[in-house]
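Margin note: ligand = 1,3-dihydroxyacetonephosphate.
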Amino acid sequence: MSSQRKFFVGGNWKMNGNKQSVDKIIEFVNKDCVDPDVEVVVGPSAIYLDYVRQKVNPAVGVAGQNCYKVASGAFTGDNSADMIKDVGCEWVILGHSERRHVFGESDQLVGEKVQYALKTGLKVIACIGEKLEEREAGQTEAVCFRQTQAIIDCIQKSDWANIVIAYEPVWAIGTGKTATPEQAQEVHEKLRKWLKEKVSADVANSVRIIYGGSVNAGNCKDLGGRPDIDGFLVGGASLKPDFITIVKARK
Ligand code: 13P
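Resulting structure:
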């Protein structure tokens, strides 16, 4: 079943980089991350989106890390999906845990952003995931389902062709504490079953559910070998040539 879903590896550069380091990343991505079997997307800071889109191989997608839910207006400091599209990028990451928990974005706002980005023609990496205290309280599924439901409520069934779900447990992000392959597989499998009920069997079978949280060159093979883990959203390791190993995790 998983073989029908193209392996997807996204690099979320977060608020990192300058022209010099961005050039270095582009160099190894263009040299070693272009692979017909893997969909690769890089997510630079908004400042560098245009630059990266011009320099990175056209086979590699480029994603904004966030965008607002309208085309333009008095929203100082923000960027719109239209702008990301205007500079030639194809993707946007929405609902990342840092947006939810550092910048206070609600489930509803994330749903509205997903709706608007899709309407603009961008594809969306929609992030969900529980905090440590939620996992410890046995609420992992409830949190993931609630966050996903807020997205379902804002979109159409046909939109799912343009969405990748990133399961990123908050406690595993930037901590070096990866979910075990069993823990990640369990959530992905439950989420897929839940999507079958809430959306459709077709969507559940075809949507890629990728894992994020301290993915590195050492743990990517084991994680990537699980049937419901269709790829990764990589933070820290996407800034380094380790990203090449992660892109080739299924090889
Ligand atoms: P790290 O890979 O640095 O843990 O970050 C994961 C992440 O947040 C990707 O979006």
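The beta strands are 7-12, 38-43, 61-64, 91-94, 123-128, 163-167, 208-212, 231-234.
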